[in-house]
Design a protein that fits this description.
The protein has 128 residues and is of the alpha+beta class. It contains three helices and eight strands, in the order βββββαββαβα. A hairpin with a 2-residue loop joins β2 and β3. The radius of gyration is 15 Å and the shape is globular.
Length: 128
């Protein structure tokens, strides 16, 4: 999915709610991110056109809270607990995800398979 910064984005999204796992003083999400407006999008293996500076899931811990919730490697994070994540730095995204006072993280994500499924269903819909 590509877009022009500052312009509205149309995306097929999925809601994912992750219950953080408490280990001592730490709250574990079970995934890692890459990307951000301060990163080189050419290094992002999930950006199709190598210009997308979005936040992507780069690793999901097997059996961890994120995997249990349905998060997948390559998912693009559009929102975290209602906050727009399409134009943030890597550090801003990390801080938004790891807030100490939040036991639950509510994400809106998009993934290529979701968009492909919608495109396929729309192309097979009978034209009138």
């Amino acid at each position: 999915m590509s877009f022009i910064p500052g312009q509205p984005v149309t995306a097929v999204v999925q809601r994912i709610e992750i219950q953080k796992l408490r280990q001592g003083e730490h709250l574990i999400l079970g995934f890692s991110i890459g990307g951000g407006i301060d990163q080189d999008p050419g290094q992002n293996p999930f950006s199709e056109d190598k210009t997308d500076k979005g936040i992507y899931v780069t690793r999901v811990t097997p059996g961890g809270p994120a995997e249990v919730a349905g998060l997948m490697m390559g998912d693009k994070i559009m929102q975290v607990n209602g906050w727009d994540m399409t134009m943030v730095t890597h550090d801003q995204a990390r801080k938004r995800l790891t807030k100490k006072n939040e036991d639950v993280v509510r994400l809106l994500v998009t993934r290529k398979s979701l968009e492909d499924a919608v495109k396929h269903s729309m192309s097979s819909y009978p034209k009138q």
